[in-house]
Specification:
Distance between the termini: 74 Å
Radius of gyration: 26 Å
CATH architecture of the largest domain: 3-layer Sandwich
Structural class: alpha+beta
Largest sheet: 4 strands, antiparallel
Strand content: 15-25%
Bound molecules: FE2/S2 (inorganic) cluster
Shape: elongated
Strand order of the largest sheet: 5-6-7-8
CATH topology of the largest domain: Rieske Iron-sulfur Protein
Number of strands: 10
Helix content: 10-25%
Number of domains: 2
Amino acid sequence: MAQEPVSKPFWRRAFPLDLHEESRYSRREFARFLAVVSAGFTVGIGYLWGRKRPLEGAPGEGARHEPVPLEGAAELKAGESKLFTFRDADDRCILLRTHEGKLRAYRQTCTHLGCAVRFDGKRLECPCHMGFFEPDRGFPVQGPPTRPLAGIALEVGPDGSVRAVGDLAKPTEGGDA
Ligand code: FES
């Protein structure tokens, strides 16, 4: 390959396109390039959205899943929590007991940018951007999140054992608890 003469300025060496060659790149080719790049972005965003939504529980709202027994749930004291996985090993959830003594379970996925939330005994907190959710229904109360956490439906058997059985519908402000 022939060496560029060093006398040419840097920008000429960095962009070695001669003016008489510009006509080789038509508007149509440029438009095609833009269309391919846009299609790539659209497919990529669609893929990420498809992966994200099931973890937030949106498409499966109200859906039942294979029940998962939650060992030690009945022994949780007010302000305590424990982690579990639900639909698969990546579906990380948190079970907690509120100060009113209610058992609640949520996906750990923060509805802001997806970090894992944890229970500080009073509120669910997301350490990434200091987002907070109240523990009774999962509504955001502070920080950047604007949507509630995805709730998990629990069932208590006659023997007091607790099982995770499905996705709760997203709560609405003022709706039933
Ligand atoms: S990811 Fe949870 S507050 Fe930003």
